[in-house]
Amino acid sequence: MNPGPGTLFSKGFYFISPILSFVAQKKYLLKPFLKSVLIKTLPRKILSEFVDDAALVGKETWLQYLHPDNKIHNYNNLKNLTVPNLVIIGGKDKAIPVDFQEDIANTIPKAVKVVMNDEGHAVVIENPKKVLSEINSFLKG
């Protein structure tokens, strides 16, 4: 869902790693950051859980995950995937440009791309029923 870091790095956005790792460690920054990637207003309890869950990810994990040398970020490896993949994209994503995400979906052979036009970067939180429906359809297909 909402893929991107590998493509962001391949497009020269190396600055994102230190910024996100710093923001993730500062809860007072994390909440407004996460709210900024949402398209829909969440109930206070769900937003609080969203922030709390994101705060559990440690700085080292962010740095390792977002590091350009991380093997999952090797954009060229996507062409070698042999199993069907589902790529769900929030059509109003403000965190990762939609065209970057579509590049990823178009690079993966046998990928099924679903663009959820009314959701942002947190599609699974903004519209969990639609996400589950898309996953079920994909698995049945």
Layout of helices and strands:
Elements: H1 5-10, H2 16-25, H3 27-37, H4 44-55, H5 59-66, E1 85-90, H6 98-107, E2 111-116, H7 123-126, H8 128-140
Parallel strand pairs: 1-2
Record field, number of beta strands: 2
Main sheet: strands, sense, barrel: 2 strands, parallel
> What is CATH's topology name?
Rossmann fold
The level 1 CATH classification is Alpha Beta
| Helix percentage range | 40-55%
Distance between the termini: 18 Å
Question: Could you spell the SSE succession in H and E letters?
Answer: HHHHHEHEHH
Structural class: mainly alpha
Give the spatial strand order of the biggest sheet.
1-2
Mean pLDDT across all amino acids:
81
CATH homologous superfamily grouping: Alpha/Beta hydrolase fold, catalytic domain
Number of domains: 1
CATH architecture heading: 3-Layer(aba) Sandwich
What's the shape? Answer: globular
Radius of gyration: 15 Å
Count every helix, treating DSSP H or I runs of 4 or more residues as helices: 8
DSSP strand (E) fraction? 5-15%
Report on the architecture of this protein.
With 141 residues, this protein is mainly α. It has one domain (5-140): Alpha/Beta hydrolase fold, catalytic domain (Rossmann fold). Helix content is 52%, strand content 9%. The chain contains eight helices and two strands; from the N terminus they run αααααβαβαα. It has helices spanning 5-10, 16-25, 27-37, 44-55, 59-66, 98-107, 123-126, 128-140, and strands at residues 85-90, 111-116. A two-stranded parallel ribbon has the order 1-2. Helix 6 (98-107) links the parallel strand 1 and strand 2 (111-116). Helix 2 packs antiparallel against helix 5 (59-66) and helix 3 crosses helix 4 (44-55). The protein is globular, with a radius of gyration of 15 Å. 26% of the residues are buried. The model has no long low-confidence stretch (mean pLDDT 81).
